[in-house]
Structure formats: structure tokens, C-alpha cells
Amino acid sequence: MNGADSSAALKIQRPTIYVKELSRHARKRLLRHFLALDSGDRLLRFGSVLPDALVARYVDGLNFDRDTIFGVYDRKLRLLGAGHLAFAPREALPAMRAATTKERVAEFGVSVSSIARGMGVGTRLFERAGIHCRNADIDTLYMHCLSSNKVMMHIAKKAGMTIHRDYGEADAYLKLLPASPATVIQEAMQEQVATLDYTFKANMRAALKWLGNLPWVKRE
Ligand SMILES: CC(C)(COP(=O)(O)OP(=O)(O)OC[C@H]1O[C@@H](n2cnc3c(N)ncnc32)[C@H](O)[C@@H]1OP(=O)(O)O)[C@@H](O)C(=O)NCCC(=O)NCCS
After folding, report:
1. Is position 168 within any domain?
2. How far is the CA of 85 from the centre of ligand 1 (A)?
């Protein structure tokens, strides 16, 4: 097998990843996910090494009505990754004022648990955020420290997004294409499939718990 064949084979083996929009009921799981990030990851994700108390405050303050938060669950319904799309008026992000004529811009923050890296979770969260922005008539996506984050730059380039560095090397933002009928259908279908996957996992967990509580079932 040559190099190209083996890397293609590795990609084929990646598990299917379902990205689901999260509701406020996911707060506890989000907190667990963020608290497991080490200081290096917290620096990349939040722009500073947030102590646990501030991570908890960030999770408490998440506004599920204004923003959109995505997640990827494992089979035990632990969050392997989370992406936060925060929407703001163009004026609220001074660096973005000249970048767009749209009324709103979006800032995206994403993190993947260390055990789940390199499997495509970050890519899927990023792609979903991009589609969601396009469907919400947003053409500019800002990410803190994008320029210095090699993995994120790779993911953005792979998704075909144009990376702009109008303000030097430190800040960068991504330009998105407008929505199309395909992006609207794509997002709706992704959400439906992710909801089915979540429901299946939740039912499996409940069934296993119930079975485990039966008196004649042996516990290991
Ligand atoms: C950035 C992050 C979300 C990526 O998540 P992930 O699930 O590992 O990402 P994926 O598996 O989808 O993709 C990673 C890609 O980067 C590539 N990559 C890994 N290290 C790299 C590097 N040093 N330089 C360039 N590319 C790199 C991988 O090969 C992979 O590309 P491929 O899919 O084409 O093979 C994750 O590393 C993370 O949580 N980091 C800490 C927080 C952070 O940096 N957040 C972003 C700022 S908000």
C-alpha cells in the first residue's frame, strides 16, 4: 500500500460523527467537557487559562436563545466536542466592522476532548457552524487566535474557506458563501440524523440501566 492509499484507508476507518444542536439541558455535560481541558487547551479555546470557577461561570452564562451551541456525543452521551457560535452585531467586534456589510457577525469557539482528537470531530463541528452561519445570513466568522492555531487553519482551509488577515498576523476571520437550498437541506438533515442518534443512545442507556437493575441479572 503506498502513502496515499494508507492515508485514504485511515480516513475511511473514521467513525461517523453526528453534530447536534444542544439545549440548556446539556449544561452539565458541557461543564464536564470544558473542565477536562488542560491549561494549554483552555488558552487556545478561551484566550486565557480560565480557572475552573470561571469555566463554570462561562457555562452558566451560555445563552441558548441568542447563540447556537453544537456538540458531539459518544455512546455514553459524554460530550467529545463542543462548538459555540456566538452572534453579535457587527459593531460589537471592532476588528470586524470593515469586514462585512451584514448586520451580524459570528464568533466561533470549539474544543475536542484530548481522547477524541484527530478523528474529525473538530472538522465536523466547524463545518456545521459554517453551514449554520450561511443559513443565518452571516458571511463573516471570527475565531480568536485563528492565525496562530495551525490545526484550526488546516481545518478552515480544508473546508474551502477564505482566510483573511486584514489586521496583521494576530487576527484572522473567515468569509462564508451565501446560503443555498442545499445548505438549508443539509443542516436540517444533519440535525434530524443527530437527534435520532442521540435518542437511540439515550434509549440504549436507559434499557441497559433497567436490565442491570433486574434481580436475576448478574452484575460483573
Ligand atoms: C482544534 C481542535 C478543536 C481540533 O479538533 P480535532 O477533532 O482534533 O480535529 P480534526 O480531527 O477534525 O482535524 C484535525 C486536523 O488537523 C490536522 N493537524 C493536526 N495537527 C496539525 C498541525 N500541527 N498543523 C496542521 N494540521 C494539523 C490533522 O491531521 C487533521 O487533519 P485531517 O483531517 O486533514 O487529517 C482540537 O485540537 C482542540 O480542541 N484544541 C484545543 C482548543 C482549540 O484550539 N480550539 C480552537 C480555537 S477556538
Report:
1. yes
2. 18
Tens digits of per-residue pLDDT, 137-193?
999 998 877 778 889 989 988 888 778 876 655 567 889 999 999 999 999 999 999
Asked whether 141 and 133 are in contact (CB, 8 A), the reply is yes
Domain span at 42:
16-212
Of 44, 125, 151, which is best to mutate to test ligand 1, by the most ligand atoms within 8 angstroms of its C-beta?
151
Residues with C-beta less than 6 Å from any ligand 1 atom: 41, 44-45, 109-112, 117-123, 143-144, 149-152, 154-155, 158
Question: What nine digits make up the cell of 199?
Answer: 435518542
pLDDT digit string, tens, across residues 95-118: 777 788 899 999 999 999 999 999
- Separation between Cα atoms, residue 158 and residue 161, nearest integer Å: 8
* Residue 54 CB coordination number (10 Å): 13
Identify the CATH number of the domain in which residue 25 sits: 3.40.630.30
In the numeric block, the cell 460530550 is attached to 79
